[in-house]
Design brief:
CATH class of the largest domain: Alpha Beta
Helix content: 40-55%
Strand order of the largest sheet: 4-3-5-2-1-12
Order of helices and strands: EEEEHEHHHEEEHHHHEEHEE
Bound molecules: (R)-mevalonate
CATH architecture of the largest domain: 2-Layer Sandwich
CATH topology of the largest domain: Ribosomal Protein S5, domain 2
């Protein structure tokens, strides 16, 4: 039996545009998904608990093709199972072994909410399952195989950003297949969560359609790339005020691409009214989380009183990427 864990992430800048080769800067945060794997003869039994901040439990047992019995939306569970099945396939391929697994997932990262739950689960599952089969992969190979998981589940529309960040920890820069850890100042992240989720595949497809229909949507994606390059300069200079301004701008551009929602906009505006340095949705959008920068308690307090915001909390930068927890 082996346990591995990996952190979630927020996007400081660049989600969606990164799918088209623009740079992005995700940052790992101190919320983790922990995966325990035990080899068995054949089949897959997955038990998952605490998959949202509300701590309701998703439990399902069954063969790979079985239908889990759960109390969350089907699409989320199907997507979740897709990531786990693909991660297991990658692990067996890396180890050159055909077998089954018992898998137990404990996660502090809400599902489909823009905090990298699928990437963290994919990375930790591949790490734990390969170790269980006696193989230790480099972090680079883990990140690459976890990317293949997202690529398969998201119908070929995925970037390396989420999986590389959850593998390495800290702040990273991703542009196409060029992925690197970068230095970042201590960023005072505040998260607002609307209790909901977005369908990453559908949101990415929606942006692709806009991009092919309208030149100005394609220009919006290029503008996000320009913004990220300015953001990198601000990060290098430790200029948190400028980082906040660019986050605000990034949210506006994502909103123009149709991936925000009423509750995400409400939380972003609550943060702005509370004098946050900046605020934006994080991840695919459609619902889920915003990330704001605020050293004071004002944004958290404002979010607590914002209709549509179910949870608010601070999440520090996690410098620890995927970690082998126990045998
Ligand atoms: C989802 O967390 C981030 C997107 O940019 C998709 C991806 O990069 O694979 C929307």
């Amino acid at each position: 039996m082996v346990t591995a864990s990996a952190p979630g992430k927020v996007y400081l800048f660049g989600e969606h545009a990164v799918v088209y080769g623009e740079p992005a800067v995700p940052c790992a945060v101190e919320l983790r998904a922990s995966v325990t794997v035990r080899r068995r003869e054949s089949g897959l039994r997955v038990q998952a608990g605490d998959l949202t901040l509300e701590e309701f439990t998703v439990e399902y047992d069954g063969e790979e093709s079985g239908r889990p019995d759960v109390d969350v939306p089907d699409t989320l569970v199907e997507a979740g199972m897709g990531y786990i099945n693909e991660a297991v396939t990658q692990a067996k391929d890396a180890a050159g072994v055909d077998c089954g697994f018992d898998i137990e997932i404990e996660s502090e990262i809400p599902l489909g909410a823009g905090l990298g739950s699928s990437a963290a689960v994919a990375v930790a599952t591949i790490d734990a399952a390969t170790r269980e089969l006696g193989v230790e992969l480099s972090r680079e190979e883990l990140a690459e195989r976890a990317y293949q998981v997202e690529y398969e589940v998201q119908n070929g529309e995925a970037s390396r950003a989420d999986t590389y960040c959850c593998t390495m920890g800290g702040a990273v820069r991703v542009e196409g297949d060029d992925c690197q850890p970068i230095e970042a100042p201590d960023l005072p992240f505040v998260i607002g969560y609307d209790g909901g989720a977005g369908d990453t595949g559908a949101l990415v497809s929606g942006v692709r359609e806009l991009r092919s229909e309208y030149d100005f949507a394609a220009d919006t994606i290029s503008a996000i790339g320009d913004l990220v390059r300015r953001g990198e300069q601000a990060l290098a200079a430790g200029d948190i005020d400028e980082i906040g301004k660019l986050m605000d701008f990034n949210h506006g551009l994502l909103s123009a691409l149709g991936v925000s929602s009423r509750s995400l906009d409400a939380m972003v505006w609550a943060a702005r009214d509370a004098n946050a340095l900046g605020a934006k949705l994080t991840g695919a959008g459609g619902g889920g989380c915003i990330v704001a920068l605020d050293q004071t308690r004002e944004t958290e307090t404002a979010l607590q009183f914002t209709p549509g915001c179910e949870e608010t909390f601070r999440a520090g930068l996690s410098t620890t990427g995927v970690t082998h927890e126990a045998e």
